[in-house]
Specification:
The protein is of the alpha+beta class. Helices cover 17% and strands 29% of the residues. Strands 1-2-8-4-5 form a 5-stranded antiparallel sheet, with no helix packed on it. A 5-stranded antiparallel sheet has the order 10-11-17-13-14, with helices on one face. The chain has a 5-stranded mixed sheet with strand order 16-15-12-18-19, with no helix packed on it. A hairpin with a 6-residue loop joins strand 18 and strand 19. It is globular and about 70 Å long.
Length: 377
């Protein structure tokens, strides 16, 4: 952890100078031998580093008051990280698991919802693992669509998640294949033993927030770059179920969600033809992430596919072209994933609330510079 000094009386700007000097180290992720040197990856790296400064300060200062926790959106159109999907609405909060908290709000319309508690947040705490969760399968909702969930060490009636001193983070995830006619749930969090008003913050609180910002902006990009490196060296142009991966890809997945991932590597004239039989699940999606695990084409249908948008062939299989241009008619492929100029990136297949095993995903590299035909992948 970086250590920043409080500013001396004679130089009130010293803390800012120390923060900026310490923050320079976050840029070392660009100097790693493994980090790709193409212009797109480097340009996105600079954007990502600035975004992680913003996210880091939010997590380590704006949300860091344990007596007055806030439940806020984690990501959105302007900030994506951790390989999130635009099919989900994410709310998160830092909490003190030794205290009692109550979540209150409206259930909303999303078919899938999950309230989860964790040992910490990736990039901020180590480790970060799911402790317990409540999903739509057991969630109690009143006649007016209202929900109340208690997070506490001691048993409580109704919806209850047991916390302890190791519980530092909670998330609400809401998933649907199409949000156009649906409303997400809206929730607030309250710590029951907290004073009614919060105290003004001081320089020490700012100092700690800036220290945490440096650590998050330094650690989080490296963590996710290392996960990208793992797929680059292990699963190029193919999918591997998460259970076959190792500790480097332990991403604290939510309950009832399984992942199969891989790295696509496609020059302009190549395409990856992907096919699978979906089977039965509450929800599935197939999306792309860049080297920094930002979502490629966030919210754009041509760069994302799910159980509600995919065209299924008469034989029950879903066939997808991951390619730099739409599939030609002779390819006979109805679904397209546009990597938005990225030669490489992570493919993320989510298999949620399954009623059958995760499908096997077949991949074949095709040469689209001339007549359609398979080439070794």
């Amino acid at each position: 952890m970086s250590r920043l000094p409080l500013p001396p009386e004679e130089d009130p700007g010293a803390l800012w100078d120390a923060f900026c000097d310490s923050l320079k180290g976050a840029g070392n992720v660009l100097r790693r031998s493994e980090t790709p040197r193409d212009e797109q990856t480097l340009a996105e790296a600079y954007r990502h580093l600035v975004r992680m400064v913003r996210v880091g300060f939010e997590n380590t200062f704006e949300l860091a008051d344990p007596l007055h926790p806030k439940l806020v959106p984690m990501v959105g159109p302007m900030v994506q990280y951790e390989g999130i999907t635009s099919d989900a609405r994410y709310l998160h909060s830092l909490i003190d698991g030794s205290a009692t908290h109550v979540l209150r709000g409206s259930r909303g319309d999303a078919p899938l919802i999950e309230f989860g508690i964790y040992t910490g947040k990736m990039g901020l705490h180590d480790p970060s693992h799911l402790i317990a969760s409540i999903t739509e399968e057991t969630l109690e909702v009143d006649a007016e669509g209202r929900v109340e969930v208690t997070l506490s060490p001691d048993p409580q009636p109704g919806n209850w998640l047991q916390t302890d001193a190791n519980t530092r983070y909670m998330m609400i995830r809401q998933y649907t294949a199409d949000w156009r006619d649906l409303d997400p749930g809206h929730f607030e969090i309250e710590r029951l033993d907290a004073p009614a008003t919060s105290q003004p913050f001081d320089l020490e609180a700012i100092r700690l927030g800036l220290e945490g910002t440096v650590d998050f902006a330094t650690n989080n990009p490296r963590i996710w770059a290392e996960i990208s490196d793992y797929w680059v060296n292990f699963a190029v142009n193919r999918f591997v179920p998460q259970v076959e991966a190792d500790a480097r890809t332990d991403i604290a997945p939510p309950s009832g969600h399984h992942f199969s991932c891989g790295w696509f590597d496609l020059p302009e004239e190549r395409a990856l033809e992907i096919s699978f039989s979906p089977g039965a699940a509450g929800f599935w999606s197939l999306g792309l992430a860049n080297y920094w695990y930002e979502t490629i084409g966030y919210g754009r249908r041509e760069s994302h596919l799910n159980s509600g948008t995919a065209v299924v062939d008469p034989d029950g299989r879903v066939r997808v072209a991951l390619s730099h241009r739409p599939p030609p008619d002779e390819a006979g492929i109805a679904n397209w994933l546009d990597p938005k100029g990225h030669r490489g990136g992570t493919m993320v297949f989510r298999w949620s609330r399954p009623k059958s095993p995760m499908p096997e995903i077949a991949c074949a590299v095709a040469d689209w510079s001339g007549p359609i035909g398979k080439t070794p992948g």
